[in-house]
Amino acid sequence: MESNVNRLELEAPFSLSKSKSFVLLWFTTVVSSLSLSMFMFIQSWYVVETLSMEASLGIILVSLTIMRMVSMIIGGVAADKGSPTKIMALSDLSLAILMFALAAFFLLFIDVPIWVLAINAAFFGIAGGMFEPSRDALIPKIVREDHLTRANSLLQGAIQISLFTGPLLAGVMITYFSYNIVLLLIGSCLCLSGISVFFIKWKKEEQQKDENQPFKRQLMEGFTYTWTSPLLRSLFMMTVVVNFFISGPLLMGLPIFVEGVLHGSSVGFSFVQGGLTLGMVLGSVLIGVMNPQRKRGAYALYLIALQGIGMLLFSQAPSIMAAVCIIIFIGMLNPGVNVPLISLVQSYSSYEKVGRVMSLIRTGSLGLIPFSYAATSILLGIGMGIEVIMAWSSLPLIISVAVLYFAYPILRDVD
User: Fold this and answer.
1) Which CA distances in Å does 310 have to 250, 286, 328?
2) How do the domains of the chain map onto residue ranges?
3) Over 50: is that where the pLDDT of 46 sits?
4) 229-413 CATH pick, 3.30.70.1670, 1.20.1250.20, 2.40.440.10, 3.40.250.10
């Protein structure tokens, strides 16, 4: 009976706002993203402001990032093998326990040791990394295919807003409350989110034959399936190229560019950083309203080329105001690229492998971000200006579009 109800809910025409399952998924996504951004801010601020151990901050960030990458790969297999809702609930509830445990350390110790923060960050990365693959695998199971682009745009917009407001909210709360009180509040919200996940109804398929296969074999099947599919391989390569040539030069280079090239203050940097976030939010709203259903691969390629042109223009910005205008444009293009790509993966991946494919693509792009930062740091270290690095980084973006356009015809033709 429950299975029939689930199918009727999926097959009947509906708007996303009236879908209880999607609203709950949106809510849990917001809470998860807020908790991540607030947690990172709280730990970073505590290490810098209270412990005065700025040089050790990298240990915490590396611990979280590496363990999150490993967890995402495992989470992709688990999402295909088991119940995505149970994994998401376990992720949120585990994060809540970590928040309560850390709150206890802040209550018991005058100065929480750096090793405690590093271990907590590692476990946070493990628990948090399980959430995204399950969420990505769950979306096509609760949303009709013609609603995928709009659903992903709403989720990406929520994530961007959460990542922007999380540090602001955490900063205000720390001003009025102690660290342990703030952590307890975050943990309570995660508990509510974890419980809410159980009320998401999703389309359950019959048990697949490969569900009883060993974990290693299922993981290798995900790699093989992604790489042998021309479309999925091209989407993977596109995601990797975009993240490598944008993350370091643009995201890491923003404060350096504002201070060293435009000679701006911290206020100027906040305007530029805020402009990037504003652009991402506007882009998410716009892509959700447009809800493109045809030529999504070609659409993403064109926008990547525009991102390259935008970076080139940004590197030549003569003032803070010009930089803000250009960075808003670049920010708007970001969800215009990511949302169609995610929707294509969800639409064209095998139902029982979508979790593994999404986790591999996200892990591949996430894994290259530290290398992008390192490459940018090396170029800065040998005396190359950040504006020169940005300008030259725009060229591979534009060139990669041409290469992918002609090397993978399926990418420019796929709907």
Assistant:
1) 11, 18, 10
2) 2-197, 229-413
3) yes
4) 1.20.1250.20
